Amino acid sequence: QVHLVQSGGGSVQAGGSLRLSCAASDYTYYRGCMGWFRQAPGKEREWVARILFRTGTPYYADSVKGRFTISRDNAKNTVYLQMNSLKPEDTAMYYCAAYPSAFLCPAKPTDFPYWGQGTQVAVSS
Predict the structure, then answer these.
(1) How far apart are CA 124 and CA 122, in angstroms?
(2) Where is 36: in which H helix or E strand?
(3) How does pLDDT run across 109-125, given as a tens digit for each residue?
(4) β-sheet bridge partners, residue 71
(5) Distance between CA atoms of 55 and 60, rounded to whole angstroms?
(6) Is 12 exposed, middle or buried (0-12, 13-18, 19+ CB in 10 A)?
(7) Tell me: the pLDDT tens digits for 49-94?
């Protein structure tokens, strides 16, 4: 099992930046898949970005391409989401999730068995 601890989030004005972190605490060396998801009030949970720890290959939803950057630190078993040029429509609860496979990295939230506690991101205009 994977225990995920999130940090970061907060409130910023449009055009600002935030950095989210998520650590997998139950592994010495995590080499699976980790993703970021978000859910706004009244909307379904949507995929934002994901990364395979083994290769570091990132993938992004079209809505955040060019603005968000996902990265990982293998030594710390931690994934980051750097969010730049934030827009009011980015306002949501953000969750990290883990899929512990060295080769598979899905994008559907229902495929991820382990989740962080979530952190609120609010972007004002």
Answers:
(1) 7
(2) strand 33-39
(3) 999 999 999 999 999 99
(4) 80
(5) 16
(6) middle
(7) 999 999 999 999 999 999 999 999 999 999 999 999 999 999 999 9
